[in-house]
């Protein structure tokens, strides 16, 4: 294929490509504006707009409720943080299921779910999103009962509740 | 022999098949994503590559660019433009999948929206994306506007 021919095709392609992209952007903007429940463009102004927008349907549980369930022995905490953070300290009896490695702990989580235990995911606090991401990932694998611990790890230690360190 | 091989490789029928196939894939992928922008935003978030302020705009707009490009390829209008955008998008997707595999992320591909049918990304997804990319490049270089609306507008094949 001659060089001029390729250059002419690229020129023609670029011009039409720009028009197609503009058309797509206009359609996307228009449909989002008129469809019921269209996504907000920038979310809220919080530090974690996506977490607020995309995880709002997940169930949450307060520190007090989680503590009561723990005292009754009816709960297993799922620590969504990285392993090194888990080793430095975690909620009592927690299972470490880093959100980037959900499959490794999936069977264990599924068996706990089948036993009817309350599963509560947590990460550092309100600003982190990995607990919600973990709950969402587990939903895709059929575990739909996971709740999110409001205030997370820092809320738990701030309340003076018991914690553990090291491996489980 | 080499002329025969060359004419087979650059056959307009091969290009037509690739173009129709890619057009269908892009329309399907775009419609699936556009039908659940919230789910697609979740998946974009899980890749952890985009800054948060870009996630919703990309979730809103990208599916519609895919749909427009898919229609362009399927009906054969502005084919080279469609093939160029499709190939560019597939190149970006290949980088994103490759980076995520290298980082060891176990996340849904989201290639066809937030369905529950896809497993975590694997090297298969990268190979599939690369094959689509090769088809896009082929269409860009060799398409001769067989069964294409571009012909209706009377443009000559260059």
Attribute tags:
heterodimer, A: 168 residues, 5-stranded parallel beta sheet, 50% helix, 10% strand, B: 158 residues, 7 helices, 73% helix, 0% strand
Could you describe the 3D structure shown?
The complex is a heterodimer of chains A (168) and B (158). In chain A, 50% of the residues lie in helices and 10% in strands. Chain A has helices at 3-34, 49-54, 63-71, 83-88, 102-114, 130-140, 152-158, and strands at 60-61, 75-79, 95-96, 118-122, 147-149. Chain A has 168 residues and is of the alpha/beta class. Mean pLDDT of chain A is 82; it is low at 44-53. In chain A, strand 4, helix 6 and strand 5 form a beta-alpha-beta unit. Chain A contains 7 helices and 5 strands, in the order H-H-E-H-E-H-E-H-E-H-E-H. Chain B has 158 residues and is mainly alpha-helical. Helix content of chain B is 73%, strand content 0%. Chain B has 7 helices and no strands. In chain B, helix 2 (12-35) crosses helix 6 (123-142).
Q: What is the tally of beta strands of chain B? A: 0
Low-confidence stretches of chain B: none
Task: Supply the number of helical segments of chain B.
Answer: 7
Order of helices and strands of chain A: HHEHEHEHEHEH
Overall SS class of chain B: mainly alpha
Strand arrangement across the biggest beta sheet of chain A = 1-5-4-2-3
The termini of chain A sit apart by 64 Å
Beta-strand residue fraction of chain A: 5-15%
Specify the biggest β-sheet of chain B.
Answer: none
Spans where pLDDT lies below 50 across 5 or more residues of chain A: 44-53
Strand runs of chain A, count: 5
| Overall body shape of chain B | globular
Mean pLDDT of chain A: 82
C-alpha-based Rg of chain A, rounded: 23 Å
Q: Write the element-wise H/E pattern of chain B from the N-terminal end onward.
A: HHHHHHH
Indicate the proportion of strand residues of chain B: under 5%
């Amino acid at each position: 294929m001659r060089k001029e021919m390729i250059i002419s095709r690229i020129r023609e392609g670029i011009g039409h490509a720009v028009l197609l992209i503009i058309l797509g952007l206009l359609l996307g903007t228009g449909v989002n504006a008129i469809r019921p429940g269209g996504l907000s463009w920038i979310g809220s102004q919080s530090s974690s707009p996506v977490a607020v927008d995309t995880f709002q349907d997940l169930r949450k549980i307060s520190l007090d409720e989680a503590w009561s369930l723990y005292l009754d022995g009816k709960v297993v905490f799922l620590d969504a943080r990285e392993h090194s953070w888990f080793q430095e300290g975690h909620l009592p009896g927690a299972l470490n299921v880093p959100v980037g490695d959900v499959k490794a702990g999936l069977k264990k989580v599924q068996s706990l779910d089948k036993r009817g235990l309350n599963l509560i995911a947590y990460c550092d606090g309100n600003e982190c999103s990995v607990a919600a991401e973990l709950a969402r990932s587990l939903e895709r694998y059929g575990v739909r009962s996971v709740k999110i611990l409001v205030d997370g790890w820092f809320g738990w230690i701030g309340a003076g509740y018991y914690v553990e360190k090291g491996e489980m | 022999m080499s002329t025969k091989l060359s004419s087979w490789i650059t056959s307009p029928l091969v290009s037509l098949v690739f173009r129709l196939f890619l057009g269908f894939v892009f329309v399907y992928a775009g419609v699936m994503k556009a039908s659940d922008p919230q789910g697609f935003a979740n998946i974009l978030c899980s890749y952890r590559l985009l800054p948060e302020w870009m996630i919703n705009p990309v979730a809103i707009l990208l599916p519609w660019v895919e749909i427009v490009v898919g229609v362009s390829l399927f009906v054969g209008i502005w084919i080279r433009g469609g093939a160029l955008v499709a190939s560019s998008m597939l190149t970006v997707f290949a980088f994103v999948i490759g980076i995520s595999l290298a980082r060891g992320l176990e996340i849904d591909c989201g290639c066809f929206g937030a369905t529950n049918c896809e497993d975590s990304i694997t090297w298969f997804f990268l190979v599939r994306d690369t094959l689509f990319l090769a088809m896009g490049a082929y269409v860009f270089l060799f398409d001769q506007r067989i069964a294409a609306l571009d012909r209706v507008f009377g443009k000559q094949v260059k």
